[in-house]
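Just wondering, can you check both lines?
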Amino acid sequence: MSSTSEQQPASARPADPFTPPDPGQARAHRAHAALFRIAERHAATDEQRRRQVHPSLIGPHEAVRIVSFLLSGAAELHDGEAEVDRADITAALSLVPMARGDMDELETGLLQMARGRGMTWQEISFGLGLGTPQAARQRYERLAGRTAADSDVTSSSDSISGSDSISGSGTGAGPEAE
């Protein structure tokens, strides 16, 4: 008699059936499956891939964008392309945290480079559309905290968010003006 556990590799099933699976591993599996599903259903042909920013590779943000555009009517289904269904929407929603994490990393890096080039928090707050230098610095600290927690890398926020430059009155000297 064949059971389900005999068909799965040992690494795919929990050691104890009463122990819940590792959420991080389940999330990674779901993200991979979501990318594969959307690529297979909505980016399988050359014509479908032309509506992507990078036609040869579909990333999380691209997959979310494609499903959103197809649902809203901003992009049209091609001949023979499957309609967007609930599973496609769920797949896209599964990728949103990954896409958000990618954007957080990009923004954190850009803020670090801006500070490294001597930009004040006042200038940065203007660029971000925030009202105060303090709001820009706090945003950076939140982003750096999230991206450091996601990658288990410690942030060098002390040198980037030094107290002398919170008000934008830093002299440009010191570690933040490389």
